[in-house]
């Protein structure tokens, strides 16, 4: 059962682009956790069980015995029928496989759809040790050039250095320029 779960993660490990960056670490962590659990289950758990659990023979019937008997009574006829009607079972399996292939072919090709939010980010980095004053001057000049050369740009918001909350640490020579574009219908030089 755990190997089947690992097989499910193989397509996720082959993703590229944004999808790969988002989901590969999760798939790898989950896979390593399952592999670790399998190793523990095959090595340490049997040894610990033999040391700490002593077999006890109970003549008393309980609920789990009744549930297992009922499962066997319903499962054995189904297995017997499947063994006697191999062509029907194989045909149903093949039909399911073909239906799955058809549905897979009709699905979209992107795992995460492309988002067009009407803006993008430029992250220029100046030389290490650049002063705050020089960084502000350079950023202001970049903003002016973008606004003059590209009429599609509506506004630019820049952030320099570290934020108030240290979740995204940046040095004084790092800049985040968020460029908001006008609606596409009003573009003149780009399409």
Question: Can you tag this structure with a few keywords?
Answer:
191 residues, mainly alpha, 2 domains, three-stranded antiparallel beta sheet
Describe how the helices and strands are arranged.
Layout: H1 2-8, H2 10-13, H3 17-42, H4 44-52, H5 63-84, H6 86-106, E1 119-122, H7 132-149, E2 153-160, E3 175-181
Antiparallel strand pairs: 1-3, 2-3
Tell me the structural class: mainly alpha
Radius of gyration: 31 Å
Low-confidence stretches are: none
Helix content: 55-70%
* Biggest sheet record: 3 strands, antiparallel
Number of H/I helices: 7
Domain count: the total is 2
What is the mean predicted local confidence, pLDDT?
A: 86
Give the total of beta strands: 3
**How widely separated are the two ends?**
52 Å
Principal-axis shape equals elongated
Strand order of the largest sheet: 1-3-2
Which range does the strand content fall in? 5-15%
Secondary-structure element series: HHHHHHEHEE
What is the multimeric organization of the chains shown? single chain
